Structure to design on (141 residues):
């Protein structure tokens, strides 16, 4: 059964990358949007976004990381996006998961799962399960 790839961005703190790598260890294809070639590419089919939020409490600041916005400039990529995974930190209060939630609201795509920082083993297991269900749903049409 084809596996939906997870395109992710992670800053220098690498928390989201660590989570993505746990998914990869479970056989999930992952693509790093920090790689210029990846963010200039088009997803060959349905894909899932994994993104942290960077709001810093500033209303004027973009919450979605620039490499994610770059990838989403492609209308093909926007159309093929099927769901969003968010990494955040509850210390940011009302801004918790701001990027994932704002994108979900604009794109009308579901938030599949939210976790803090690099996630727990339970977060990884839950996400693996959700993505496997997504694969099965797509295979069933
Ligand atoms: C400057 C700054 C702003 C942040 N703003 C938010 C925010 O608005 N909402 C949120 O949920 N998390 C926020 N976070 C937490 C990060 O999204 C979280 O730590 C994430 O795991 C970072 O992933 P990364 O290390 O892959 O970049 C912020 C972190 C920093 C350093």
């Amino acid at each position: 059964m084809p596996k939906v790839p997870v395109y992710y961005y992670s800053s220098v703190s690498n928390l989201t990358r660590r989570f993505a790598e746990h998914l990869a260890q479970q056989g999930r294809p992952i693509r790093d949007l920090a790689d210029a070639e990846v963010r200039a590419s088009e997803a060959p089919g349905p894909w899932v976004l994994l993104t942290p939020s960077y709001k810093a409490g500033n209303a004027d600041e973009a919450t979605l990381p620039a490499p994610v916005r770059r990838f989403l400039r492609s209308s093909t990529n926007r159309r093929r996006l099927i769901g969003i995974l968010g990494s955040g930190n509850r210390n940011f209060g009302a801004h918790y998961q701001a990027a994932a939630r704002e994108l979900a609201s604009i794109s009308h795509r579901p938030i599949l799962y939210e976790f803090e920082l690099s996630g727990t083993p339970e977060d990884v297991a839950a996400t693996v399960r959700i993505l496997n269900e997504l694969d099965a749903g797509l295979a069933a049409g």
